[in-house]
Amino acid sequence: MYFVDIVETEGLGNRGYLAGGPRTAVVVDPPRDIDRVVAAAARRGVRIGAVVETHVHNDYVSGGPELARITGARYVVPAAARVPFAHTPAHDGDTLPVDEGLALRALATPGHTPHHFAYLLTEDGREVAAFTGGSLLIGSVGRPDLVEPRLTEELARAQHASARRLARELADEVPVLPTHGFGSFCSSSPQTEQDSTTVGAERKSNDVLLKDVDAFVADLLAGLDDIPAYYAHIGPVNAGGPPPVDLSPAAAADAGEIARRLAAGEWVVDLRSRTAFAEGHVAGSYNFEADGQLATYLAWLIPWGKPVTLLAESPEQLADAQRELVRVGIDRPAAAAAGDPRRWVRDGERLRSSGRGTFAGLAEEAGRARGTGAGGTAGPAACDGVVVLDVRRDSERAAGHVEGSVHIPIHELHGRIGEVPPGRVWVHCASGMRATIAASMLDAAGRETVVVDDAFDAAGKAGLRVVRPEEG
Question: What pLDDT band is residue 377 in, cutting at 50, 70 and 90?
């Protein structure tokens, strides 16, 4: 009897898998912090006999080379990836024994990358699971624009053909087990709420299996969103063979060290909640909440290679953050501190505070600016006289925005802070997480800010005028 265990990396929206029988298992698309995989194998009492990659990843650093090294497992990589390190090249149709009666069959599925493979787990010759990597996802497919812009349309067409090959070769009941698509920017469409799927379910709901190739490609290309900047660095790291990780504690930073690093232009990142940060923080520090999408947004926004010092409420929060960051190639914090934030500033210095509010509070301020009270008396309020900064992506803003707001996507803000009009700035996103990051950047530049810690759906209900596409 076979098993499949999920190795979840929620912050990045990815999954790796441990699959096998009573004695031996194979690992598909392992995360970089491989101790989680080793622990999963130990719980099962199995030996890891092979580690396989569906493709050279762009969104996280693979733990494949290190996992293969420490376990002595065979390391299987698509042949066309042409990586320089020791590996077993996978070719279309290759079969890899896993355990008695269990095998893994390689299936070429180009599209997400030119060299992409899916792997089909078979039990006594019958397919029982499909590890689809970045090809067929839950309700979507992996995006085809991460390799080379000139190849995007060609890869989108290949993605259509690959998904249909999977559907053609597999029975309806076979589970589809993708690597991406649980919030990952590698998915070509927004995250689905579904947590699992089968080939049959995808036949009924996935555009790639419902639309002809021309319609599918046109819609896919029209819907592609921004690419996190760090993807450009992760691909080459994986292609060259990532080094082992070091999760030992970073060097401790006192108040003087924190001040010196800020003065040197390095990044000091406060991992605490937006509430704690607003109440008191080191002037010049940025707030990337540990329980948000820390790895995605810090890696996206920080100049690549810039030293980073982490500030946290506890050593455990620091350790968790280090683990998250190594997954995206931020290998070692320059320094770190945890505990009472009053110890992070030098004698005679004070912590800086900042504002938090809601869309209702913003509507009241807009009303006061117009001299009409909360929301005004002449219908929904625009934001005349109030600086409102929308840091959502272009695609989100296109679906509706607060009239009079300034739009600078979060991933562009660091280089465009000078474009934010003077005055106290109310910063919003869709829920408050990205607004918190953006407001801290403005705060570090000396601006007075208010984080709109609220869902965007509340804007219209609060009496603000929200412009929708149909309104022009």
Answer: very low
Q: Which residues contact 309 (CB under 8 A, 6 or more apart)?
A: 253, 257, 258, 261, 266, 267, 268, 269, 333, 334, 335, 336, 337
Instruction: Characterize the bridge pairing of strands 14-20 and 88-90.
Output: unpaired
Q: Could you tell me whether strands 126-133 and 117-123 are parallel, antiparallel, or unpaired per DSSP bridges? A: antiparallel
Sign of the Cα pseudo-torsion (44, 68, 148, 163, in order): negative
pLDDT digits over 153-176, tens only? Answer: 999 999 999 999 999 999 999 999
Tell me the angle at which helices 294-301 and 315-326 cross, rounded to the nearest 10 degrees.
Answer: 60
Cα-only R_g, the chain: 24
- What span, in angstroms and rounded, lies between the C-alpha atoms of 156 and 162? 10
Q: What is the token pair recorded at 141?
A: 């497919």
CA dist., res. 20 & res. 96, Å (int): 12
In angstroms, the CA 58 to CA 55 distance is 9
166-196 burial, b if ≥16 CB within 10 A, otherwise e?
bbeebeeebbbbbbbbbbbbbbbbebbeeee
Kindly report, residue by residue over 182-221, the tens digit of the pLDDT. Answer: 888 999 887 667 889 999 999 999 999 999 999 999 999 9
Q: Which has more pLDDT, 194 or 293?
A: 293
